Amino acid sequence: MQDATQDTTAAGNGQAGEEIEFTAAFFQGLAQKAAAFLPSVIGALIVLIIGLWIAGRVKKLVQSAFSRTGRVDATLAGFLSSLIHYGLIVLVIITTLGIFGVPTTSFAAVIGAAGLAIGLALQGTLGHVASGVMMLGFRPFDVGDFVEAAGVMGTVKHIGLFTTEMATVDNKKIIVPNGNIFDDVITNFAGYPTRRVDFTFGVSYGDDLNKAMDLIKSEVEKDERAKSDPEPVIAVDSLGDSSVNIICRVWVERADYFPVKWALTKAVKERFDAEGVSIPFPCRSLYMEQAA
User: Fold this and answer.
1) Which domains, ranges and CATH numbers included, belong to the chain?
2) Taking the model in full, what pTM does it have?
């Protein structure tokens, strides 16, 4: 009985020794693998930290460069700098995974496929973004300009990446997709510092045309806002059904366009009335036939 107990104890001690040896061998192998893998981990962490730092610095440098030029809109500068920043972050992450042994070729293919799917799903929206980038880069108009585009006329209040906000002359807010604007003809009424005001004054066939033209010229010369260079043009333009039409073309500063138009229209009408020059209006003659 004592011998059986000793044998059982010896067997238990042998089994425990084998388990200790197995555990020691396992941890020794794990330590060897960790030691072999440690340089890759340290290298990957270094690449990740330095790469993220460089991406942040590049973003700040790009923003600073755009702000120094003064020709790039703040919205476009922020968009481009953020785009470069996130692109560098993706590149750093792919490089880090490559250091760990992850096959980056398949990873890049997955990213490309996902990007293609997102691009197809957001094709219209991305088109507006592309148009917004082009508008902010080429600047066909600025905030505060009065423009006509995409069938809308108004003052530009804000230019974004997706839409442009305008205010009509009666102060209605209109939001227009950038793609509609960039694909259409854009008329910028504030594109140049000067504009030409065109008038048409009709006088009666029985009036003195030279007198009427001299009166118009006199009123133009009285208005200091009318430029002498280019010289105003006053000439007989056409013979209408009930009037002889005299055109008057005057160059003014852009901001004076409507004030001069309204003021000269009123001044010429009052001068014609004072000098006896008639402004005819359409007339109809009725002929009555008497029954036999």
Assistant:
1) 22-118 (1.10.287.1260), 139-188 (2.30.30.60), 194-275 (3.30.70.100)
2) 0.59
